[in-house]
Design a protein that fits this description.
EC 2.3.2.26, 2 domains, 22% helix, single chain, six-stranded mixed sheet
């Protein structure tokens, strides 16, 4: 499927400030930003497409989950009868002229999340994020610590690579026996099973924290990736002020 227009969406709560921008009644009150057939609208963690003839659109209006018929993975959800929201961690969009090369799942997830953190921190000067599932629960608290980390390591004695291969991932080295990758360094706290509930509630009410929504299964997958990366670090470098440390390649 090809798109004629690929346009960025305004921030999620843009309509809350319309009254501050306009000296007359809200001109957008009855209008919605829904893509036409050849449009692709980009959000922070998702993109919107016109449903058109999509075969995996749920038939029941009560069921908004969009499921891949082949692997049964949740790809997104319907937001209106003719609009589908796909999450960036579940579907790949690329130029039609380029050749497609499969990317290992965990490498793709951490790359997309890292790029999302970079873009939002640059555009909105925010460095704290909550990772939420489509079920409304908070799974992870992430604090972006460093956005220009370069990982350089010997492939023969790479502990982090041995961890990543648990997912079937192999990062290609830049040359010879030494691999180098751009990465972001983050601090994180898991919030599953009521862990860090007080801190999660505090971040929930903090205007400086930006929420990011993904499928719940992907949130758990991301938490596992974070945990395995932390375990690959020396014990003295795994924690900082009660937060766990993680380097994420992109």
């Amino acid at each position: 499927r090809k798109f004629i227009r690929v346009l960025p969406l305004p921030s999620e709560n843009w309509s809350d400030l319309v009254e501050e921008w306009c000296c007359h009644p809200n001109p957008f009150a009855r209008s919605t930003l829904h893509p036409q057939h050849d449009d692709c609208f980009l959000g922070d963690t998702f993109f919107l497409l016109n449903s058109g003839n999509e075969s995996h659109v749920p038939e029941s209006p009560e069921n908004t989950r969009v499921i891949c018929k082949r692997c049964k993975t949740m790809l997104g959800e319907t937001v209106s009868p003719d609009t589908i929201k796909y999450y960036i961690t579940e579907v790949i969009i690329q130029p039609s002229e380029g050749c497609f090369s499969p990317t290992p799942r965990s490498q793709f997830v951490q790359s997309m999340v890292a790029q999302c953190l970079l873009e939002l921190s640059s555009a909105k000067s925010t460095f704290r994020f909550t990772i939420k599932g489509n079920d409304g629960k908070t799974y992870i608290l992430i604090w972006l610590l460093n956005s220009d980390t370069l990982l350089v390591e010997s492939l023969e004695s790479s502990s982090s690579l041995s961890v990543l291969t648990l997912f079937g991932d192999t990062f290609m080295p830049s040359s010879g026996q030494v691999g180098s990758w751009d990465a972001v360094k983050v601090l994180y706290q898991p919030c599953i099973k009521c862990r860090n509930k007080e801190l999660a509630d505090e971040w929930e009410n903090d205007m400086g924290v930006h929420p990011l929504k993904f499928p719940s299964e992907t949130c758990l997958e991301l938490l596992l990736i974070l945990g395995l990366s932390t375990a690959s670090l020396p014990p003295s470098l795994r924690c900082m002020k009660s937060f766990q440390v993680r380097n994420s390649c992109y």
